[in-house]
Amino acid sequence: MTDNQTCTVYPWCAETGEHTVHASAYTVPDICDGNGDWILPANLMTDEAGLFVGWLGEDLTPGMTRARVAELRRHLDAIERLADTAEKATCP
Question: Are strands 58-60 and 50-55 parallel, antiparallel or unpaired?
């Protein structure tokens, strides 16, 4: 395998050349935080331990990933309710 040859093991792997840890490209939203950093970057990875989602600083199983996404959805709904309250509130 040459240094720029795409991975022949996993079609989702973005690594090129010889590698033992397979990783997809990161998925990130089109927005950054106030410091210009990506918000919630995630990618698919595999190593000798198996296949996992690299997200939130952890190696998550598909089930764990879905549980975290559900937690975030609930949190985002709560944040949206704060915006609703702010729109309806009047300042003295």
Answer: antiparallel
Tell the burial category of 48 from Cβ atoms under 10 Å away from its Cβ (0-12, 13-18, 19+).
exposed
Q: Which residues are CB-contacts of 33 (< 8 A; sequence separation ≥ 6)?
A: 39
Cβ atoms of residues 24 and 12 within 8 Å: yes
Any residues with CB less than 8 A from the CB of 72 and at least 6 apart, and which?
Answer: 40
81, 74 contact by CB (below 8 A): no
Of 57, 38, 43, nearest to 15 (Cα)?
43
Per residue in 69-91, pLDDT (tens digit) is: 999 999 999 999 999 999 999 77
For the record, the structure tokens of 12 come out as 């989702």
Length of the chain: 92
List 22's β-bridge partners, or say none.
46
pTM of model > 0.90: no
